[in-house]
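We modelled the chain as a single entity of 227 amino acids. Its sequence is:
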Amino acid sequence: MFSIRKATFADCELINRMAKEVFPATYKEILSPEQLDYMMDWMYAPQNILKQMEEGHVYFIAYKDSGPCGYVSVQQQEKDVFHLQKIYVLPRFQGTHCGSFLFKEAVKYIKEVHPEPCLMELNVNRNNKALQFYEHMGMRKLREGDFPIGNGYYMNDYIMGLDINKKGLQNTICKPFLLNNITGQIPVSIYATFSSFFMIEKINRADNRQQAINTLHTIHSCMPPHR
């Protein structure tokens, strides 16, 4: 079970320590050691984290069994556009669904401060395996670019987006799930939102074919296709 709290200025050192563990582990096969060192200082020196907070970055720290296990930060950039600036899970907690917990908490925060429809964007390196995670969470590629960050370095990213509180959707996430071998027949493809994730889990745990079919019948399968 995870818990989460909003970070304060006093947490800059804690965020820095977590970043020293997770950021190099995430990018060691993508970036050069020199660029890793540059970006660690640029993004995660305690004084730079403090500056980010002063400029509107809202950090949250996730905990499991009273120990920190990950962090996420969100910044409002325009009236109806938020940016998911950072979302990282410490290596020893990866695979525990902490990432999806942090992602959902970021969406929850945006809904609380901005009840109207808006867009949540994020940058992700084009070679980062996390791309599949973001697509699974319902994000779509909006554009791509090579963004200079100083010292001759670039971020080679996709910009991804997620519609939040969009009219006509039960929630913010709509994407196809391919459920293989659930019924013992051919794969079944459905569209689901956050509110039906628990139904997916039920299907995965279904003891028999009929139970799976009954569960599938409870999910709307005629939502507009994901784009």
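As a brief sanity check on the tokenised model: The first strand starts at residue 2 and ends at 6. Residues 168-227 have pLDDT under 50 and may be disordered.
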